[in-house]
Amino acid sequence: MSASNLIQDLINGILLGGLYALIAVGYTMVYGILRLINFAHGDILMMGVYFAFYFISAFTMPWWLGFIVGIVGAGALGFMVERVAYRPLRNAPRISSLITAIGMSFFLESLAVVVFGGIPKSFNLYPKFFSRILIIGHTRIQVLTFFILGVTLLLMLALVWLLYKTKIGIAMRAISVDIPTTSLMGANVDNIISLTFIIGSMLAATSGIMWAMRYPQVQPYMGFVPGLKAFIAAVIGGIGSVPGALVGGFLLGMVEILIVGLFPNLAGYRDAFAYVILIVLLMFRPSGIFKVYSEQKV
Amino acid sequence: MSEILKVEELNVHYGAIHAVKGISITVNEGKIVTLIGANGAGKSSTLGAIIGLVRSKKGKIIYDGKEIIHMRADAIVKSGIALAPEGRRIFPNLTVEENLRMGAYFRKDEKGIKRDLDWVLDLFPRLGERLKQMGGTLSGGEQQMLAISRALMSDPKILMMDEPSLGLAPLLVKEVFDVIKKIKQEGKTVLLVEQNAAAALAIADYGYVLETGKIVLEGKGKKLLESDDVRQAYLGVTV
Fold it and tell me: pTM surpassing 0.90?
């Protein structure tokens, strides 16, 4: 493998990893607070992409405005899913919310098939200059790559700032170890949980839209594989830990791309690597890379 | 002397368990009132019911002239009651400073928050040395200090404390009880739940003795301390 190929692979790995990481954050934040794996997360991502698609193509919005509206729409959807499906079950046995999450996932996918149709649609809705290719040395890089990397990095910095430097961020970290005690601080627990769903859904939709720009297609099941991979990334990082989700996402994306780059014969097994990594990790370090404080027992 | 908190005929159920059976207590403003009794007497359930963490309850809880039994915990805390809960329950993944900021979560008066922060760090200077340390790395005694300080950061009218001396070394127990007296001197009302009956009654203005969910004895702190029943049952003195 030549040096320029390696650089290309590294860039692609970071890119894919960043997209996984943005989705993984939503899984890990929700799990941290509610001990719930939100299986509908990938489908909220898909809905966000459809929202953007229709606002741009049917309502002739400028591409950037359509993207923003799609992302906000996904946030609203995440809010509603929590409000309608998960909040009534907050004190129910965990298996009930888990089954509800799976049901919500199927519901959103089926709804998309009925409303938007099952046939994949082309997502070539962004300006042509994104498709231009820059040649740096011997490496060829699309402008889109820089755009995605920039947005990803910016959002991650914003997220870390929110979580570690603002009052609401402190509350989001507090609530992830102890919900009743957080309410003893005079904080409205329901609002903090809603906000967590909104932020997680918006990050996932942003990732989904950038995914659709890179692999320019939108279809009702497009959230499934990225969602599953991002979930694995969250487990690798230590589910419940936001830094863990970011690191896990990058690690998974990088490994996937590099293995295919180094062993092109294995390209067909690309999706299997994520599961192999997961199985090996669960054998040797089941809690993931980052330590997470578990709920204190009374 | 005005009543700031009045609990009437409070009942708490956990499924089939009837934990609190018709308790009535009165807390006067600016006083230290204590509930003492053995494990399972219903002391923590009473505090949980007052603060709104326990939902299945009946009776009346009048705070500042208003019925609060149906209010949510966060609204009750905002109205001026704070709880330093049993087992401290500090946030182990937040720094000491962030724990204290959480205590003042709903407050907007930056000046008042700063003043209260200086005050609690004056009460417990050791916390000041550990502001940037994670809550989970503190010793048990320091965690208790943090739990009390965090509750005080909401600038409550009533501070409720659930077993603040539990698991502390004797010297620390003395420090904590000295601080409770100082909190009273600031004009705050204290409702203290304790198993350490001797220490609690020594500083309390008024006390209630609970047994299996009922009040069996009440009176001024010093009187209870001298009563034969209390001495025999809780202080291990044979009469």
Answer: yes
